[in-house]
Design a protein that fits this description.
684 residues, OB fold (Dihydrolipoamide Acetyltransferase, E2P), Rossmann fold, seven-stranded parallel β-sheet, six-stranded parallel β-sheet, 24 helices, binds adenosine-5'-diphosphate, binds magnesium ion
Length: 684
């Protein structure tokens, strides 16, 4: 096997499994090896620990009697009783009647799951069942947990990966020069891949990951350097009237801009009037009010007859910005054309929008990345703004200029990147920071609690809804899967509405719904027609419903602090007091990390504290720099690898800016791949 071998050639992968893998974007052995685990579990020793109630435990139990399956109200339930000396444990499985055949009365098995107290006895829901020797064997390794979706199970991925590494003829290309690996203590690529998928211990995991992170940074930086070399600083050809148009708009806003917003606005206006094109990163914590600034700039350009575009990562966010822009125009008495274009539109509608974009002077265009993917031609694009997507935002200048467009570039992000790192990543970019929240905001009140608080939280939501507010509840996964910890959005929403009075309208939202459906549900929530929105993290980025005052996050311990901070940023956007409830379903230890959020509402502080708390190798599931688009690398955690990779990339680029003399064929190929990947995201 090699990297381009199709997954169907892997032992044990039939056509159905293959189809599932393909839905995850995994077509080849190479894809499979780049589909990294999101976490690893180390199984606990066998034994019942009453003091660790609520945590994952492994019990060696004798099965009393025959297991039973019955149809419950919503699903099929299988139960069995297990015994450990004086303890009795009720074992419960949902939609897993085949478990019955696996268990014999009077035999002993290891049951691994979350142990909860039920009156005087104990219960375990959805435990995994092992033979004792299999459990002991599994305990010796770190078990990879893969991100799952589309009905594919983590165990299926793990099995396929195992088969790949079992192949003695497996050939994996090396893509870094040997001397570079020696200099930075990097293991060969094949070893690194094995170490990240099947680490024998933490040490190996760290070693393997370091090499792959280096690779990720290195090719990103080389690719960026190369693109930059091909473009360079551009002259500003967009003439603007000096008639105080923006200032007049600011006067008419229903609120005063904060000092920080004013400062940033004037920096950006200076750019628009200067000799060179703007190329700026605007950082501002969640809720600091970036959208209005983008709107003001875009309106200014419309006023001068130019087009501008705002690009966002999700359809939901695009639709929301569109509504915001329309209502801002109404408030300000403007009538510039606003055009929305998203990937989920029907072909005919898209075509019509594309025609409008090609013809309408002075239009404000809003869209997802489909804006680029669909070969859009602008009439006279003067400014491209990207919201919440650092990495591609910065590449956009290059991408656009290859299409013959040379607009001003503005990248907006809530991910706090220290200046030193931003310089490594983006070189010549100017940076503005909004370091102040609007005055009408009350600090969000936070709490980190365990599952026994759920009932109270529901009551609290009920109370807030009765007072005319709205609430979000976040669940991590869409479907009941083998991940015992996960709550399922759909059934969660059903359970939640059973707990709440009929007058409270509960809706749900998840990533597997169609774009139109998502947008519709989001719009209903924004319009106040729904009171509680149960959702996955699709709403993490950018969503703005100022009337929502409660954010409740289930399985909070499973999220990175940056993601949680983003989620929290969905409330506290108006003048009412807002609340954030983090439910920790993990152990007490996890509370420490969550406490950081409890203490502060400041994104920069949170990122740095989180880093201090984590040891080396403690990085899984806690990526900070989400919107940078790296797969493994985390610019905070891996800052030293980033600077090493940057030095190597710089050295190479200085000697050979166009990389025309690279002799290492592998390096060349990888570079081409990276560039293609970067550009294909913008599809040129
Ligand atoms: P973000 O920076 O997270 O993108 P938004 O731009 O969505 O934040 O703004 C959040 C909310 O704050 C919006 O409802 C917006 O209208 C409001 N807002 C923005 N600036 C101010 C201000 N200076 N005073 C009061 N409210 C503001
Ligand atoms: Mg925003």
């Amino acid at each position: 096997m090699n990297e381009s071998t199709p997954v169907s050639a892997i032992k044990g992968v039939g056509s159905k499994t293959e189809e599932g893998f393909q839905k995850l974007g995994v077509y080849s052995v190479g894809d499979m090896l780049s589909y990294f685990p999101r976490d690893y579990v180390e199984l606990p020793p066998i034994g019942l620990f009453p003091e660790k109630e609520g945590q994952l435990q492994a019990l060696f139990l004798r099965v009393d009697g025959t297991p039973l399956t019955r149809r419950g109200r919503r699903m099929e339930v299988t139960t069995a009783q297990g015994r450990d000396g004086q303890f009795i444990v009720q074992l419960v499985w949902f939609r897993m009647s085949y478990i019955r055949k696996m268990l014999r009365s009077g035999q002993c098995y290891v049951f691994y799951g979350r142990l909860v107290k039920r009156g005087t006895s104990y219960a375990m829901e959805q435990p995994r069942v092992y033979k004792r020797e299999d459990y002991e064997e599994a305990r010796r390794r770190m078990i990879p947990v893969y991100p799952v979706a589309q009905g594919v199970k983590s165990t299926q991925l793990a099995r396929a990966v195992k088969e790949i590494f079992n192949d003695r003829d497996l050939f994996i290309n090396e893509n870094l020069p040997e001397e570079l690996c020696l200099r930075h203590d990097l293991v060969p690529r094949l070893s690194a891949l094995r170490m990240i998928h099947q680490p024998a211990d933490k040490e190996e995991l760290i070693t393997g990951r370091k090499r792959l992170v280096f690779e990720e940074f290195f090719f990103f930086l080389l690719g960026m350097g190369l693109l930059k070399e091909q473009t360079g600083k551009e002259k500003n050809r967009f003439l603007l009237k000096e008639d105080g148009f923006t200032e007049a708009l600011v006067e008419k806003l229903p609120f005063d801009l904060t000092k920080a917003q004013e400062k940033v606005l004037s920096e950006m206006k200076t750019d628009l009037h200067s000799e060179h094109l703007m190329n700026r990163l605007l950082q501002g914590d969640v809720g600091s009010g970036k959208t209005i600034l983008a709107f003001l700039l875009m309106a200014e350009l419309s006023h001068n007859g130019y087009q501008s575009a705002l690009m966002v990562p999700t359809e939901v966010l695009a639709a929301q910005h569109y509504e915001t822009f329309l209502s801002l125009e109404k408030t300000l008495g403007l009538a510039f054309p606003v055009i929305l274009l998203t990937g989920n539109m029907k072909a005919a509608e898209k075509k019509e929008k594309q025609r409008l974009i090609a013809e309408t002077e002075g239009a404000l265009v809003i869209g997802t990345h489909a804006l680029f993917q669909e070969k859009v031609n602008f009439k006279n694009l003067a400014l491209a703004v990207t919201d919440e997507q650092h990495r591609f935002g910065v590449l956009q200048r290059e991408a656009l200029s290859e299409k013959g467009e040379k607009p001003h570039i503005l990248v907006m992000s809530a991910t706090p990147i220290p200046r030193t790192l931003a310089i490594i990543l983006y070189g010549d970019l100017d940076i503005s920071v909004i370091d102040e929240l609007p005055k009408n905001r009350l600090p969000i009140k936070n709490c980190v609690v365990n599952t026994s608080w759920r009932e109270k939280a529901y009551h609290f939501i009920e109370k807030e809804v009765a007072a005319g507010h709205q609430a979000y509840v976040i669940c991590p996964l869409v479907e009941e899967s083998e991940n015992l910890e996960a709550e399922d959005v759909v059934s969660y929403a059903a359970t939640l509405s059973e707990h709440l009075p009929d007058t409270v309208k509960v809706e749900y939202l998840h990533g597997r719904m169609s774009g139109a459906e998502k947008t519709e549900k989001m719009e209903r929530f924004a319009a106040g027609e729904t009171d509680v929105l149960v959702s996955t993290t699709v709403i993490e980025v950018g969503i703005n419903v100022p009337n929502a005052t409660v954010m409740m996050v289930e399985n909070a311990e499973r999220f990175g602090l940056a993601a949680l901070h983003q989620l929290r940023g969905r409330v506290g956007r108006g003048d009412a007091q807002s609340y954030c409830i983090f439910i920790n379903t993990g152990d007490e230890e996890k509370n420490k990390r969550l406490e950081i959020l409890n203490k502060s509402n400041d994104g920069f502080y949170i990122a740095s504290e989180d880093l201090k708390l984590r040891g080396p190798g403690d990085f899984m599931g806690v990526r900070q720099s989400g919107d940078l688009g790296f797969v493994l690398a985390d610019i905070y955690q891996d800052a030293s690898v980033l600077s090493a990779a940057s030095e190597e990339a710089k050295r190479i680029l200085e000697e050979d800016p166009r990389l025309s003399h690279i002799e290492n064929e592998m390096l060349n190929r990888q570079l081409e791949k990276e560039q293609q990947r970067l550009l294909s995201r913008l599809n040129l």
